[in-house]
Design a protein that fits this description.
alpha/beta; two-stranded antiparallel ribbon; 9 helices; about 40% helix; globular
Length: about 280
Amino acid sequence: MADRPGDQWDRRVANGLAFLRRRLAGDYEVDEFGFDPELTDAVFHPLLRLLYREWFRTEVSGVEHVPVEGPALVVGNHSGTVALDALILSAALHDRHPAHRYLRLLGADLVFRMPVVSEIARKTGGTVACNPDAERLLGGGDLVGVFPEGFKGIGKLYADRYKLQRFGRGGFVSAALRTGTPIVPVAIVGGEEIYPMLADIKPLARLLKLPYFPVTPTFPWLGPLGMVPLPSKWLIEFCPPIPTAHLTDSADDPLVVFNLADQVRETIQQTLHTLLERRPDPFGP
C-alpha cells in the first residue's frame, strides 16, 4: 500500500526522537580521533548538502578516480577566505561516491584551538594536519583530505584567485610515501568568489592573533550579513590517482618528495585552468 500523506512525516518524527534518545543516552560511537559518523550524517551533511546543491549548484566529476575501498590521499587547492571548500568537498564526495566514503580532513592547529569549531571539526572526522595522524588514518584504510596551501591559499587576495600558492615542504607526500598510498589531486573552482578578499588588515590580524583579517565587498561593512557566501557556481574534478607504492623507500628523500609534490601541484593547476574555461561566468547557472 502507498504511504498516506502523514506517514512520511510520522517516520521522520519517530526517527528524530530515536536519534535524540540515543544522543542523550550516549548510545553512539566515536573513533579514536573523535569522529562521529551518526552526527555527521544526521546534522552536518544535510546542512552542507543544501549549500553545495542549491546555493553553489555544484557539479562533481571524476569520482571514479577515488578508490572504492582502501586508503587514498585527496589533495586539493584551498581558497575562499573561509575554508568552506574543505567541508563542501567532504560532503559532495560522500554523496557522489558509490561507497559513500567519508573524507577525513586534516586541519591547521588554529582550527583545533578554537572553541566549538574544534569540537565540530573532530565530530566530522577532522584532525590536526601532522604526519603521525595522517599516517594512522591512511594505515587504517581511510580517505584523507589535505590542502597543502594552508592559510596562504584561503587568505590570498581576489586578484590572485586560482593561482596556487606554495605547497610547503611536501609533508603530505611523505605521509603517502610511507604508507604506499595513492594521491588523488582534486581541483575546486568556485571557492574564490564566495568571499572575494580585496584587502588584508594585517595590524588587526596580529591584534586578534589571526593569520589575516579580510576585507570583502560585504565584510565588515554589513556585519554578520557579510558572512553570507556569494552564490558562485562550483565545479569539482577529481584527477587520476598518482601511485606511490613503488616509492615507499624514498619517503625521506627530499628530491623525490619535492618532485612528487610539484607533480600534484601542476596537475591541480592545469585542471583549474580547464575548469575555468568550462565556467566563464562565476555566477552563471
